[in-house]
Amino acid sequence: MDDGSYTDATLAFSNWLQANGTTVSEKIDLVDLRAQGAGRGVVAKENIAEDETLFSIPRATILSTETSSIPASISAEVQDPWLSLIVTMLYEYQQAKDSKWAAYFDVLPADFDSLMYWSEAELKDLQGSAVVDKIGKAGADETFQEQILPLVYANVEAFRAQSLSNEQLLALCHRMGSTIMAYAFDLEPAGGAAEQSQEEWEEDSEDGMGAAVLPKGMVPLADMLNANADLNNAKLFHEDDAVVMRSIKPIAAGEQIYNDYGSLPRADLLRRYGYVTDEYAKYDVVELSEDLISETAKEQLRLSDSDLSVRMTYLDEQAGLDSGYDIAHPDGEDGAFPEEFCVLLNALTTAAPEFEKMQKKEKLPKSDLTPASLELLYTMLLRRRAEYGVNDADSLRTQLSNSENSRRKATALQVVVGELELLGKVAAHVQEKIGSGNKKRSADTFEEEAQEVAAKKAKN
Ligand SMILES: C[S@@+](CC[C@H](N)C(=O)[O-])C[C@H]1O[C@@H](n2cnc3c(N)ncnc32)[C@H](O)[C@@H]1O
């Protein structure tokens, strides 16, 4: 969009907010931050004290299934809060200038860098990261085809969709879904808790699996705040008639006003919001899948299929197994390894007679990792490292400094380098716990040994 129309759209949106009962502090401004790669954002024009109201938006101005003019006979067909908002937005968007929210749609994005929009070739730059399997495009396509498109076709006039092809409709569903993923809020009911829930921003993948029960809404202006994990200085509060954005610390003139997207690893930031920043590096994780855990345990501990299955089933019954476990920064708040993962490792490495005793008493091992579990874990880390391919973090870091990289390539490299650095750090942490003088390793460094594992895997 050229600068003129971008500024016109911002101005029209600000006028629209005012015409629709929004009060905005004189101390803030909606500005163009495209030069910083951050779209629009809100900045302080003057010093702001803690707990000042930055703006207040009447509930009627929020775009939701409840406030929309979508016929109740249509919206009643969709129960899921996520899909319900997609259908509602589709309806309002199709009303074009006749929609109450037309000026709002003009400042919402039409293009996205979130992973749903990446090509297969672009996704290759994320090789190894578990995020690639979490995009959920096929699931979203199926949900849209099965639940939204038939509803639109059955009400084609109401949706003003006579001239839209199947493909165009599907693309619009994705566009609305991706907008919700990066912009929507969970709406607390009037008369409910005064404060926003912990997870204010949309949580789930586009297929709506596991969607929260609270209705979702698009909150104009509140969603123009960018996010920063370290510099978060504002928060949305849900009051009876309005939602109110307040400062949560003093903000100096010229500073950007930031919301918070929660403790998201950069891979998830990229998946849902289409950008990454270093402040979120501390939340990076590397996932070890249940398959990798089972395969490694089977080989290293020489467990038969049935031995492994007995142990995994027992663990699942006693504690519940996850499809994968996130390894985090060792110096982070919760340490590197989730407790239930440590229990799983210890259960896998317990000698058979003791395991049987444990089963009889319906007990689980403690979570302090035993020497055998640490060795098993180290092998898992090597294999996990091998899944990222042969590039080491240093060579990827060099690629990262190439100014010719597209924005998507640069963000993918940041994610992968972050995960590789984390793996190296965790491997060193495990090696330190194992101590020197133990098992002789086949290579001097974790990286070299992982390259051997990768080469062996490529051969087989
Ligand atoms: C809720 S919107 C914020 C408003 C957005 N900048 C706009 O112009 O519409 C979320 C989107 O803003 C962008 N964003 C948020 N925080 C950012 C940041 N710290 N740096 C760069 N882009 C950011 C991302 O594109 C994200 O998907």
From TrEMBL:
Residues 26-262 form the SET domain. Coiled coil: none annotated. The keyword Aminoacyl-tRNA synthetase does not apply. It comes from the Eukaryota. Keywords: Methyltransferase, Nucleus, S-adenosyl-L-methionine, Transferase. GO terms for cellular component: nucleus. One of its GO terms (biological process) is methylation. The keyword Amino-acid biosynthesis does not apply. It holds the Pfam family SET. InterPro entries: N-lys_methylase_SETD6 (IPR011383), Rubisco_LSMT_subst-bd_sf (IPR036464), SET_dom (IPR001214), SET_dom_sf (IPR046341), SETD3_SETD6_MTase (IPR050600). Its EC number is 2.1.1.-. One of its GO terms (molecular function) is protein-lysine N-methyltransferase activity. It is found in: Nucleus. S-adenosyl-L-methionine-dependent protein-lysine N-methyltransferase that monomethylates 60S ribosomal protein L42. Belongs to the class V-like SAM-binding methyltransferase superfamily. Histone-lysine methyltransferase family. SETD6 subfamily. PANTHER family: N-LYSINE METHYLTRANSFERASE SETD6, UNCHARACTERIZED PUTATIVE METHYLTRANSFERASE. This is Ribosomal lysine N-methyltransferase 4.
